[in-house]
Amino acid sequence: MNTIEVCFTPKLYSEIITKKNFIVVMVDILRASTSICAAFENGVAAIIPVATLEEAKAYKDKGYLVASEREGVVTGFADFGNSAFNFMTEAVRGKTIAYSTTNGTQAIELAKNAQAMVIGSFSNITFLSKWLIQQNSNVVILCAGWKNKFNLEDSIFSGALTERLLQSTDFKMDCDAAEAALDLWSIAKINPLEYIQKAAHRRRLKKLNLDDVLEFTFQMDTANVVPLLKNGVMIGEKDI
Amino acid sequence: MNTIEVCFTPKLYSEIITKKNFIVVMVDILRASTSICAAFENGVAAIIPVATLEEAKAYKDKGYLVASEREGVVTGFADFGNSAFNFMTEAVRGKTIAYSTTNGTQAIELAKNAQAMVIGSFSNITFLSKWLIQQNSNVVILCAGWKNKFNLEDSIFSGALTERLLQSTDFKMDCDAAEAALDLWSIAKINPLEYIQKAAHRRRLKKLNLDDVLEFTFQMDTANVVPLLKNGVMIGEKDI
Q: E strands within A155-240?
């Protein structure tokens, strides 16, 4: 029996119970994980996650496309920021993009020594669930959160993914956080977009006029791909 | 307007938003905070929270009553362990007890520099809510959790207390964790005792035959007292 564990913020990652043979699903619903799924669905060749702005700048100098933001704002040297719509253009197709965000890429960095690290969002939830069930491994859902704090959008997605995995008899929940995420999702799923109106980060994005992508974020199954980190580079896994 | 913040584990305490003028409500439903409320309701004079077993042993050598457990098991030198029923006897009335537990006293240690530190449980929820509303201060609800992990029992209590505070127009929630706790409570409150059956720590206690006190734990308003930490010693505040 494989276990499902939910980690509500990167700061709690060192406390996870599962110590070996687990796949980490990194979740940063607003907005990195939604954007990464959109990118691969749109035919982006690869994404190089970088934690610091210095590294992002170095990739820019080497001629890469660079997507980079801090606290929702595009950094000066970057080609574009963190909206999924930026990753859905003709111009990025076939390209490799260096990508740095406030929360998402730090969480990726943290989990890169797991057996595998993949990206989850509402946009790839069905495809991802099927892929995870095929892997026959324990799953740790790692929420990027907001600056190490619990957030609602990543937590309800964790519940949604847990619900999907439990449809396979090979999975069981292994911590109270997974139970809580599932319960929060049972409330949120009636209307996720409306539920998330009360989330602090949703208000933060609204203030920055960055909530254009919100409706798209909560659309399910717009991407049939599992973004998978291999040797520091993310590629889009499309075979199941 | 005063804010309500919820901190799901001690490890996230350093991330709280509120930086000044806040009261910490420490919550360790299974079982320290329930036991402490029962003690003061029963007329215990004072409780000295100690983080380490060495300190607990030193108090024992000085002639104090000592309550002490690790992972649910009473430590060898202690007079008794962590069950609320231990604190409700004639023998402890009027006494000062040194008290050390797996999670609870560590959380107390962490928050002792707040404006005030008090203890919350279902047993004093009404009295505590009234007292907090009178204080006119920001509130941080600090869940002791289980070894730095999120747990359900402390989280649903946080939701229950948040619900009570929001009945006063002087309070608003200030983080996603408070919103989530309130939502979890909206599910759990139909039957908290049944809801908590799925909690990992409840299963842990059952395995140790330590779940005798479970029904008492979820009874509301058996204690009209606010345990309040002053200069390293906890006393029972009974005036509102």
A: 171-173, 226-230, 233-237
Strand extents, DSSP E, B104-232: 116-120, 138-143, 171-173, 226-230
Its pTM stands at: 0.94
Using an 8 Å CB-CB cutoff, list chain A residues near B183: 183-184, 187
Helices (H) and strands (E) in chain B, counts: 9, 11
A-side interface with B, Cβ within 8 Å?
Answer: 8-9, 11-12, 15, 146-152, 155, 175-177, 179-180, 183-184, 186-187, 198-201
Q: How far is B75 from chain A (nearest CA, A)?
A: 25
Q: Which two tokens stand for residue B164?
A: 């009570």
Interface predicted TM-score of the whole assembly (ipTM), two decimals: 0.94
Asked if residue B113 lies in contact with residue B86, where contact means CB atoms within 8 angstroms, the answer is no
Total Cβ atoms within 10 A of residue B53: 17
For chain A, give every domain's residue range: 2-231
Output the CATH code of domain A2-231: 3.90.1560.10
The mean pLDDT of B170-183, rounded to a whole number, is: 96
Tell me yes or no: is domain B2-234 CATH 3.90.1560.10.
yes
pLDDT at A234: 95
Contact between B151 and A179 using a beta-carbon 8 Å cutoff: no
Distances (CA, A) of B137 to A38, B132, B141: 45, 8, 13
CB-based burial of residue B224 (10 Å sphere; 0-12 exposed, 13-18 middle, 19+ buried)?
middle
Average pLDDT per consecutive 10 residues, chain A (240 residues; last block may be shorter): 96 86 94 94 95 91 92 86 92 95 73 88 98 96 92 97 96 96 98 92 75 90 96 91
pLDDT for residue B104: 66
pLDDT for position B97: 97
Q: A79 and A99 in contact (C-beta within 8 Å)?
A: no
B76 CB-contact burial (10 Å; exposed 0-12 / middle 13-18 / buried 19+): exposed
Rounded to the nearest angstrom, the minimum Cα separation between A88 and chain B is 30
| Other CB atoms within 10 A of residue A204 CB | 15
Q: What are the tens digits of pLDDT across the range A98-130?
A: 998 777 677 777 876 799 999 999 999 999 999
* Yes or no, beta carbons of A152 and B180 under 8 Å apart: yes
- State whether B152 and A184 contact (CB < 8 Å): no
Residues in chain B with CB shorter than 8 Å from the CB of A176 are 146, 149-152, 155, 199-201
Alpha helices in A29-151 (DSSP H): 32-41, 53-61, 104-110, 125-135
